[in-house]
């Protein structure tokens, strides 16, 4: 177990190191960097495009002074840079040539081409001090400043058309609304009237970790407001994609060592399950395999030790029964020979009576030895069975004729229900029925009732008597070898204690069961139940 835990610790450490050295760099370059690049371009698109268009109309030597003059109205630093194509890759040059923003999260810069000689650069937009204003306001304040200035240069009735024409420069929605159309709180409306930027958070903005989903500002002293956003519909998809990949990578690569650790244990469990099934089928030589690196090998060893002890116990039990059964036949035969000699050499009635008692005991002993050998043989191997279709009514009636003739004082009744064809081995099923009849005659009170029935799953035969019955706690035990529920009663009626155990064996060969329950006659009712569909042996 300790070795297995050390192995698990080693592969977890190896997996974490592999993630850090091999997986994370690929994640950063292929997932996180493109996502952050897109977000940087998305949030700076509107203000940067408008500002670049304004700078195009300003002489080159005056542009930097203009940026410094308006810098306080932006939430990030603005500067200019000479456009040296050698500083950019062919992909970046192509991107800038289309007047698109190129964001670089690694350097925290964003570039927008003004003309062939100069670039507008946003410097470290993600690292500007945030204690002055909240994040959403900081990103949007430049856009509001440029839009306000542009709208104030035109009459109010033309503002909607101007906003519509500028919406293509923004990657997020831009709308023009009146204060009366807003459904915000009184406090938020009051803030708007003072000219402040109001940000509105939603469940989606909280989910993606962005401080707000909508930003709103009043246009000077008018009743109009500019509404930017919502931002989450596009940001959320990107963030969810990045987080999904991130958690999948970590979850997957951390599961690998656990799976590697569990596979040997899983194989051990399969081996134990297979061996348990084989032991249940009587194949006591089956053993569980010891799987390399399995943390359940100690359990497999314990299980194998138990199986070995059971195998030795059963083997010694069978050997003992076989030896005793065979060895008893010789002294029994000698006693029978001596009894016959004594019977022929005496005419004393008392002595002849004693010889008859000895002969009865010998017959009972012979029966016991015969049953022991039969039971041991059935335990050792299943005989070849010959299954055939039998009409139960006719077959049971023929079987009962012999028992009625041998026991004229016992009333044996067959409850006939018409033709019923069943698949059985006649020889061994006759043996099972005979054992039940012998049991009913021995323990009943001169009345036995036999019935049969075809069920939805197969067939059953019932043998009921009017004896004392069998207590429910003993219902399963009576089918065990040599079990006697009442020792004194069994001494009176005789029996070997193996008859019902043999019945159970025979029904097992038919893939059925033998059971007992209270009889309507007052005694016990033994039931033989076997299925219609069976596997031919």
UniProtKB/TrEMBL annotation:
Q: Where are the transmembrane segments?
A: 239-263
Please write the reaction equations for the catalytic activity of this protein. ATP + protein L-histidine = ADP + protein N-phospho-L-histidine
Q: Which SMART domains match?
A: HATPase_c, HisKA
Q: Where in the cell is it found?
A: Cell membrane
Q: Which SUPFAM superfamilies match?
A: ATPase domain of HSP90 chaperone/DNA topoisomerase II/histidine kinase (SSF55874), Homodimeric domain of signal transducing histidine kinase (SSF47384)
Membrane topology term: Multi-pass membrane protein
* Name of the molecule in the record: histidine kinase
Organism of derivation: Pseudoalteromonas neustonica
